[in-house]
TrEMBL record:
Keywords: Membrane, Transmembrane, Transmembrane helix. The chain crosses the membrane at residues 6-21, 33-51, 63-83, 110-131, 137-154, 166-187, 202-221, 233-255, 275-297. The keyword Transmembrane helix applies. Pfam families: Lys_export. PANTHER family: LYSINE EXPORTER LYSO. This is Lysine exporter LysO family protein. InterPro entries: LysO (IPR005642). The keyword Glycoprotein does not apply.
Length: 301
């Protein structure tokens, strides 16, 4: 059961053991990771094009995505405001207005990659039997690079443990997301371990979509990608609106993106005091995405 899981974990672990001392090496790893994500999302689009009954499968993806998004996000938002009530956090936001186009540009590129792959697969007649093998090889390399990124993110174990709010937020997101995934699986009549895997994306839409697609096929991969992308897009709009009254809710809903993509929004609208909390919670959730998702996927092996 766990042999396949360990095989996929291995490059992540090996990558985490590699410290990078030169900034240019870190930059090179970050750049290569982004490019590989785009490549593998192009392959995801090709996989969708290869599906029989594409129209009905796209409809299925939409239903899956909507159900999981509502169940998981609803569970998160039911619990996070309670944390704000019992553990108030001061904010000192500057209320700078960040351009929506700037914040969403990276998301747009990744969405475009999937659609380009889908369009190429539909328009160009080609043998697509190689796509799954290519995706698996690139996935292993991607996990290796992600391990390096996590090791060189600047976070030490001491910094993580000392920031109790960040740890509690990440814990709360996990323990509310998983029941949300179970509820969605029950509503959709899906295997419960599939629901738990779908609930373990925590906003990291590129990796979540890739892992789910590799483990369960392009329908699950597409649905997971949409669920986590929707979380990020909603977070972009929600954070400036609620962070002054519910800072921990705003940070928590951003999930894994709180340490990178939504961090500038959190800092600008919530102030510098929110930054360490966001980085710690986002780091923990980012680390847990491949760990939990691969574990739950392995339960059906």
């Amino acid at each position: 059961m766990f042999s396949g899981m360990l095989l996929i974990f291995l490059p992540l672990i090996v990558g985490y053991l590699i410290p990078l001392k030169r900034p240019q090496h870190v930059h090179w790893v970050n750049t290569l990771t982004v490019r590989l994500v785009i490549v593998i999302l192009l392959l995801m689009g090709l996989s969708l094009a290869a599906l029989d009954n594409l129209g009905s499968n796209i409809s299925t993806i939409g239903v899956y995505a909507a159900t999981f998004f509502v169940c998981i996000g609803g569970a998160n938002l039911l619990a996070l405001p309670i944390l704000d009530k019992i553990w108030p956090t001061d904010t000192q936001g500057h209320q700078h207005k960040l351009k929506l186009s700037t914040m969403m540009s990276e998301s747009g590129k990744l969405i475009a990659a999937v659609f380009v792959g889908l369009a190429v697969g539909l328009i160009v007649e080609m043998d697509l039997s190689w796509v799954d093998t290519a995706s698996e090889i690139i996935l292993l390399l991607l996990l290796f690079l992600i391990g390096i990124q996590l090791r060189n993110s600047g976070m030490t174990l001491k910094q993580i443990v000392l920031n109790k709010k960040g740890v509690v937020i990440a814990t709360l997101i996990v323990i509310t997301s998983l029941p949300g995934g179970l509820l969605a699986a029950w509503l959709l009549d899906l295997p419960y371990h599939h629901g738990l895997a779908m609930a373990s994306g925590f906003g990291w839409y590129s990796l979540a979509g890739i892992l789910m697609g590799d483990g369960l096929g392009p329908v699950y991969g597409g649905a997971s990608f949409i669920v986590e992308l929707a979380r990020e897009l909603v977070a972009i709009m929600l954070i400036p609106m609620i962070i002054s009254r519910y800072p921990l809710t705003a940070i928590g809903y951003g999930g894994a993106t709180a340490m990178d993509f939504t961090l500038p929004i959190i800092q600008s609208t919530g102030g510098i005091r929110c930054v360490p909390i966001a980085i710690v919670s986002g780091f923990i959730l980012s680390l847990l995405v491949p760990v939990l998702m691969l574990f739950f996927l392995s339960l059906g092996a």
